């Protein structure tokens, strides 16, 4: 049930990234409301059926991309037939092209980021870090803080799930005889990774999309640094007394990074710098900078492989960037396509406009943004953030930063509230569980409240 809930929430969230494009692709007033028309009802039914199959993936073994890709094609076919009958084919063409462009930008951006992370993993960067921590000789309490701090500062660059998995591997290696240490450290890592991702456009898909849409400039995200620190530190301080004393036995051999590891890490930093510069100074879409960085990685791959070509016995130099690309999770990327196209069709049918202003019409922006953060513990932060972006309420920079913060850290309230939490439940199965996290949710709530209060206090001039 938890897996199904997360699957639906994550997919719906990524799909909503296309909605602003749909809204501006054609004049909504000029398009018919098809919510009560048979085309709209059939389209909605196809969408629901596709998601039912997605939810049942574990039992049917049907890859999640297949039903949504088929449903997307059928939904747009129905729209095309109906709008052609009404003489509005041009509006449909503009809308579908805009939705597809939104997907293409997201696809290529994620492709580059995932390729770099895969390359760093293949060059054993994360293995070397894990080995160093396992063999460090630190005590349980020191490792609790060290893995949390590293998760906090790694997640703004790498995604929070990858960061959490690396740190959890350390915890599992040193804490196999101390389940309490493992449980508390996993909670701490989830909170830290989500908090760290909240103050960087590269830390989470929600912050990435906020930045891509131009709602918050790149530099302004760092107004959330101290609120994010409070969100991480307060729960950690509350959990600290429950940690066992003593130290684990240092074990395992040292892991040496493969040639080119540091060079790839440096290129990743250069790619991020290029992306920010292109977007901020030249007003180019962020994906242009990311693709330029991929080109640099391709050239570096050629340089590394030249050593292998001269001496095939030196297999440590055999690095192929296209092999890294081929190992991406293509089912997930195609899944994004199907979902984004499905929800784009729902937007054109009129269903999404029915709920576009409900929340902000009933509550003030501060209360609404805090409530949305709490809801992200259940429904995932991505759909909620992009519902807000779609509604585009009249808010100052402080409120946009508030919703960025709350949707970033709200997922830590429950173990199922973020990709990091779900991943760690699988990695530390039977130790880090939903109920184990729930027992300490009061501490995470304290951190959630502290982060919000720090933001409201420090950044009051932005509201």
TrEMBL record:
Transmembrane spans: 35-56, 68-87, 99-117, 138-157, 221-243, 255-278, 284-304, 334-354, 366-388, 400-420, 440-458
UniProt-listed Pfam families: CitMHS
Domain Citrate transporter-like: 51-408
One term under GO cellular component: membrane
Signal peptide region: 1-25
InterPro entries, per the entry: Cit_transptr-like_dom (IPR004680), NhaD-like (IPR045016)
GO terms for biological process, alphabetical: sodium ion transport
Mode of membrane association: Multi-pass membrane protein
Molecular functions per Gene Ontology: antiporter activity
Entry-linked PANTHER family: SODIUM/PROTON ANTIPORTER 1-RELATED, SODIUM_PROTON ANTIPORTER 1-RELATED
Protein name in the entry: Na+/H+ antiporter NhaD
């Amino acid at each position: 049930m938890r897996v199904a809930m997360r699957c639906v929430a994550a997919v719906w969230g990524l799909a909503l990234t296309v909605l602003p494009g749909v809204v501006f692709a054609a004049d909504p007033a000029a398009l018919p409301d098809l919510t009560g028309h048979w085309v709209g009802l059939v389209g909605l039914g196809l969408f629901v059926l596709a998601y039912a199959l997605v939810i049942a993936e574990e039992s049917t073994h049907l890859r999640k991309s297949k039903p949504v890709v088929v449903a997307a094609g059928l939904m747009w076919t129905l729209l095309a037939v109906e709008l052609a009958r009404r003489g509005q084919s041009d509006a449909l063409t503009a809308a579908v092209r805009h939705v597809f462009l939104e997907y293409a930008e997201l696809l290529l951006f994620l492709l580059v980021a995932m390729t770099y992370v895969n390359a760093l993993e293949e060059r054993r960067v994360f293995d070397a870090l894990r080995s160093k921590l396992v063999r460090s000789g630190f005590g349980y309490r020191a490792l609790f803080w060290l893995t949390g701090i590293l998760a906090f500062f790694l997640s703004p660059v790498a995604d929070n799930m990858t960061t959490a998995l690396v740190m959890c591997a350390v915890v599992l290696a040193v804490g196999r005889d101390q389940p309490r240490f493992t449980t508390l450290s996993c909670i701490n890592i989830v909170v830290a990774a989500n908090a760290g991702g909240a103050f960087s456009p590269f830390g989470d898909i929600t912050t990435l999309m906020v930045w891509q849409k131009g709602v918050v400039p790149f530099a302004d995200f760092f107004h959330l640094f101290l609120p994010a620190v409070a969100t991480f530190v307060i729960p950690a301080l509350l959990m600290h007394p429950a940690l066992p004393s003593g130290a684990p036995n240092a074990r395992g051999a040292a892991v040496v990074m493969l040639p080119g590891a540091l060079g790839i890490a440096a290129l990743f930093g250069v790619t991020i710098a290029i992306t920010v510069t292109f977007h901020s100074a030249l007003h180019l879409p962020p994906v242009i900078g990311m693709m330029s960085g991929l080109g640099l990685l391709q050239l570096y791959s050629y340089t590394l492989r030249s050593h292998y070509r001269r001496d095939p016995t030196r297999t440590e130099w055999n690095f192929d960037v296209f092999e890294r690309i081929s190992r991406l999770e293509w089912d997930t990327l195609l899944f994004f396509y199907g979902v984004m196209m499905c929800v784009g069709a729902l937007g054109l049918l009129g269903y999404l406009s029915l709920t576009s202003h409900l929340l902000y019409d009933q509550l003030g922006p501060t209360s609404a943004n805090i409530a949305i953060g709490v809801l992200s513990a259940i429904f995932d932060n991505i759909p909620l953030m992009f519902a807000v972006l779609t509604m585009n309420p009249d808010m100052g920079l402080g409120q946009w930063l508030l919703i960025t913060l709350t949707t970033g850290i709200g997922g830590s309230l429950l173990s199922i509230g973020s990709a990091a939490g779900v991943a760690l439940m699988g990695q530390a199965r039977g130790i880090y569980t939903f109920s184990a996290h729930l027992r300490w949710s009061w501490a995470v709530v304290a951190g959630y409240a502290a982060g919000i209060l720090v933001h409201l206090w420090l950044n009051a001039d932005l509201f």
